[in-house]
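Quick one, C-alpha cells below:
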C-alpha cells in the first residue's frame, strides 16, 4: 500500500512529458486563445484554464455541468479559471464552453473539445470498526445533519480567489498513491477514495496549503476532527482525522499556518492525514494540485 508502482510512475512521467510538450507547441502556428494546464486531462485532474481576452471582456464558461468563474491575473496577463475533472467523471470527449462578450455587444465562441483520459486507479480492501460501515440508528440523525451542513458550507464559497501561488503540502510526511482507489470496507461497502493519505504520525503539525477562510473546524462522524479551508471560487482543501484543531470557523488563514495536529479520529484504520481538494462538488487529485504551477495566474 505504501509503494509507488514503477509502471504507474513511468506512465505519470509520460503524461508530464506530454504536458510539457503541449505547452510549448502553438496550435495552427499561433498562440491558442484557451490553454489548459496540464493539457493531458484525466479524471481527477485540476485544470488551470487560461484565456487570452482583453480586460474589458466578459467571460462565461461551463464545463461538464460546472460553471466556470474567471478572474483576471493581477499583472493583466490574461484571464484564468481554476477548475477540474471529478475523479468519477466519464472518460471521452467533453466540451469546454467559453463565450467572450465584448462591450460593443459582440460575442465570440471560444469553446473547444477536451478529451478526458482514463486514470488508472487501484482497488483495495480495508477493515474498519463496524459502526463506520453500518452506522447505528443513533448516529443516522447526526450524519444527516452533517450532510446538510457540508452542502451549505461547500455551496457558499468566496466570490474571488483567496489563494495565491502554488499549493503546498499540508504536512511533512510521506504521501501515498491513494487518490481514486476503489475501496471496500469490511468486504461490504464500496467507495472511491477522494483524497490523499499522508503517513503522518499522531500529532504531526498540519498546515494550510494556501491562504483562505476556515469554513469547517469541528468533529464529524466519518471525517473525525475536520478542518476545511475555502480558497475562493469553489475551491476547498480539507484535512480529516485530526487529533487537535487549532483554528476556528470564520478565521482567515495564510499559507503555511498551523491548523491542527494529525490523528486517528473518525473512520480510520490508524493515524494518518487524509487531505482532500474539492472544486464545487468535484474531488481532485491532491498530488496533481501540488504539482500545478500557478505562478502565471498572479
Ligand atoms: Zn484517506
Amino acid at each position: 500500500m505504501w509503494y509507488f508502482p514503477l509502471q504507474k510512475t513511468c506512465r505519470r512521467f509520460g503524461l508530464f512529458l506530454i504536458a510539457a510538450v503541449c505547452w510549448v507547441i502553438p496550435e495552427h502556428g499561433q498562440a491558442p486563445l484557451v490553454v489548459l494546464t496540464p493539457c493531458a486531462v484525466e479524471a481527477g485532474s485540476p485544470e488551470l484554464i487560461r484565456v487570452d481576452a482583453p480586460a474589458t471582456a466578459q467571460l462565461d464558461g461551463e464545463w461538464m455541468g460546472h460553471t466556470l468563474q474567471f478572474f483576471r491575473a493581477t499583472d493583466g496577463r490574461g484571464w484564468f479559471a481554476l477548475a477540474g475533472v471529478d475523479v468519477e467523471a466519464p472518460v471521452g470527449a467533453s466540451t469546454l464552453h467559453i463565450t467572450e462578450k465584448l462591450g460593443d455587444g459582440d460575442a465570440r465562441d471560444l469553446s473547444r473539445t477536451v478529451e478526458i483520459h482514463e486514470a488508472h486507479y487501484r482497488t483495495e480492501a480495508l477493515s474498519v470498526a463496524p459502526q463506520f460501515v453500518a452506522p447505528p440508528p443513533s448516529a443516522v440523525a447526526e450524519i444527516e445533519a452533517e450532510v446538510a451542513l457540508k452542502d451549505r458550507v461547500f455551496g457558499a464559497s468566496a466570490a474571488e480567489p483567496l489563494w495565491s501561488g502554488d499549493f503546498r503540502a499540508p504536512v511533512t510526511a510521506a504521501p501515498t498513491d491513494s487518490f481514486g482507489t476503489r475501496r471496500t470496507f469490511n468486504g461490504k461497502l464500496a467507495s472511491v477514495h477522494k483524497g490523499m493519505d499522508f503517513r503522518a504520525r499522531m500529532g504531526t503539525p498540519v498546515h494550510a496549503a494556501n491562504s483562505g477562510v476556515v469554513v469547517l473546524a469541528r468533529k464529524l462522524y466519518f471525517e473525525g476532527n475536520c478542518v476545511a479551508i475555502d480558497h475562493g471560487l469553489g475551491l476547498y482543501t480539507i484535512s480529516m482525522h485530526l487529533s487537535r484543531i487549532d483554528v476556528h470557523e470564520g478565521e482567515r488563514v495564510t499559507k503555511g499556518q498551523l491548523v491542527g495536529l494529525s490523528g486517528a479520529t473518525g473512520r480510520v484504520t490508524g493515524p494518518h492525514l487524509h487531505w482532500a481538494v474539492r472544486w464545487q462538488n468535484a474531488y481532485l487529485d491532491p498530488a496533481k494540485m501540488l504539482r500545478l504551477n500557478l505562478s502565471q495566474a498572479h
